[in-house]
Amino acid sequence: EHTGGDTPIAYFTGAADSNERQLQDYLPALSTISFIQVAHEDHTVLNLLKYGRSGEVRFDTTASPIAAYLYEALGAEGIEHYVREAKKVCAGMRTAQEFLDRLPSSLVAALARAASEIASGRRERLLEIAEKYSTTGPRTKKRKHAA
Fold first, then answer.
1. 74, 109 contact by CB (below 8 A)
2. How would you write 80-138 as a 3-class SS string?
3. Helix-then-strand count for the chain, H and E
4. CA-based angle 54:46:23, to the nearest 5?
5. Which residues contact 6 (CB under 8 A, 6 or more apart)?
6. Are 27 and 116 in contact (CB under 8 A)?
7. DSSP letter at 11?
8. 62-119 residue pLDDT tens
9. At 43, is the secondary structure helix, strand, or coil?
10. Which of 92, 103, 113, 120 is most deeply buried (CB count within 10 A of its CB)?
11. SS3 40
């Protein structure tokens, strides 16, 4: 909403079928983000997200590097928690802003900064989001997932 409303996700992530750089190319190493939890709870899931299936399928992409990044950062428990939080946004029980405020702030900042490299038409607003969440203090530290 803050960056200008609905648009195809590829506008922010880059087209998967092109040779252009994509969102994951601009994401910082997880070791440089202070909230890092790196929960390798399920190597099978992480490897599937990072490297994809061994065979091709028509209904899905092979690898999901952004999902792998989030899984590696938040762990399975964190992903489940934030999916529940996202559903509250879809149900009208929370605003998108409230959802972002519940995420680890350094993760929001990293994603917004990376997206600003791809979505040049929304670069300024994405950088505003990155700045807001990169300076919110204690929320950048490792924390438990609040209900």
1. no
2. HHHHHHHHHHHCCCCCHHHHHHHCCHHHHHHHHHHHHHHCHHHHHHHHHHHHHHHCCHH
3. 6, 0
4. 95
5. none
6. no
7. H
8. 778 888 889 888 888 889 999 999 999 999 999 999 999 999 999 999 999 999 998 8
9. helix
10. 103
11. coil
